[in-house]
Amino acid sequence: MQKWLWVVVAVVALAAGLWLSASFKSAPAEPVAALVYPTPRALTEFNLLDEQKQPVGLKDLQGHWTLVFVGYTHCPDICPMTMAKLAGMYQDLVKLTPEPLEIWFVSVDPKRDTPEQLAQYITYFKQAPIKARTADHKDLFPFIRQLGLMYAINDGTETNSDRYTVDHSASIALLNPQGAVVAMFKPEMKPGAVPLINNQQFLADYPLVIAATTR
Question: What pLDDT score was predicted for residue 215?
Fold first, then answer.
């Protein structure tokens, strides 16, 4: 009787071990530095301008994936460094994306960042076909907030001087081909360092995010 009891215990333990092993193997990997929204966040219509002074709206987000970063051309560090990182990863990201991929640089400094200024700025990042957008604050702020990002003008007011800075998010929003926000890629936050995305982590997280949002 005792021998049979040990046999039963061994069989149950083996079955439990196999079940746990299967459970761990079937659990999908989670992105480390990206937040995936449980439900895509649909955007309402918006009105922006591109670097060619052409109108940009909700229809321009459809039919492709879009990575959106907000900043301004007079930004001394986060903006050029982040855009350089995205441009450098672009070809790798295209291979990991099931549909076409666009990168948008949305300027939150419309006073200084004219379409001409934006057109010149994006030529610095030649590894990727980056698209620039901006608008007056009345149109810009609601759009940025819909993305889950933010910005604020500092050091006085724009009307008094051209010497001012702009606080803005360092995260990057990912939108699906329906034009809805599905994820947010977070920068590394290190004491005394500029908050920037980590290329290696971004490339590791990106396919996990795509898979999670297309299941």
Answer: 79
3-state secondary structure the chain: CHHHHHHHHHHHHHHHHHHHHHHHHHCCCCCCCEEEEEEEEECCCCCEEECCCCEECHHHHCCCEEEEEEECCCCCCHHHHHHHHHHHHHHHHHHCCCCCEEEEEEECCCCCCCHHHHHHHHCCCCCCCCEEEECCHHHHHHHHHHHCCCEEECCCCCCCCCCCCEEECCCEEEECCCCEEEEEECCECCCCCCCECCHHHHHHHHHHHHHHHHC
* Whole-prediction pTM: 0.86
The rounded Cα 12 to chain-centroid distance in angstroms is 46
Of the chain, the percentage scoring pLDDT greater than 90 comes to 81
Please, are residues 214 and 183 in contact by the beta-carbon 8 Å criterion? no
pLDDT at residue 43 greater than cutoff 90: yes
CA dist 46 and 145 (Å) reads 11
115 contacts: CB under 8 Å, gap ≥ 6: 49, 50, 51, 52, 53, 132, 134
Q: Which of 78, 44, 214, 191 is nearest to 206 (CA)?
A: 214
Residue 104 pLDDT exceeds 80: yes
